[in-house]
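Before the break, one more example. Copy the sequence into your notebook; we will annotate it together after we see the structure.
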Amino acid sequence: MMAAAAASYLKCCGKFSSVAGLWCARVGAAAGLATTRRSSASAAAVNKAPQLSLLMHMDKVGALSGEEIARVWADFHAQKNIPCGVITAHEYNTLQNKAKQCPNFVIPTVTANSANPAAGFQAFFVQWQMPYYAIFTGADEYRILGAASKPLYKVTHYTELLATKGIVLARGEAAAPIDNRPVETSAGVTPEQGRQLFDRLHAFYGTSGGERRWSIVQRFNSGAPDFSFEQLLEECRAM
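Here is what the structure looks like once it is written out:
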């Protein structure tokens, strides 16, 4: 689908101005902290349903097939260098079930370094706020500040088309202000990091991740002594 055609189905998004280190100590305790309090203002913003109508002309989208909507969604986000995806009902149900079982995780983003491939990563702590969001904070900051740490990034799942088209639209974006309008860039997360967070979140929690990746998530959430951050890092480097 041509960019101009795709643009007719979408709305312009508002602009938003644009640790290192191993984070594996006491992972069980850290995971337990994630289920505790968050400020009421932040909770209200996170739990509020996102509105696909802020991004798409819903009256026009209703006439498209799921495949056509997927192309429009992908074309629009490719122009803006924003990670996105289209999830089937089965995949979304899997995400929800796994997020309920294991609502927290740590995901490292890897910095390309041809001179030293083993060097360079930054870890982010993720808290699922289903049915719509996965919220990312800096892992080192979360380890120190807990729920007071600042949300930097989120993956949003738009469910308005689930009943009629059997799909959920997903995208990565900066952690939104209280009014929950979509904003596209984050001062704390680069576009490449955002893409890695988006892809790895779905790789570890989705249907394609396999038992090996899911077992890493489970061991982290249970505080199992055999959880290995090095294994997680190697898994991410291989993606």
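Residues 94 and 206 are 6 Å apart (CA to CA). The chain has eleven helices and six strands. Try to locate both features in your own notes.
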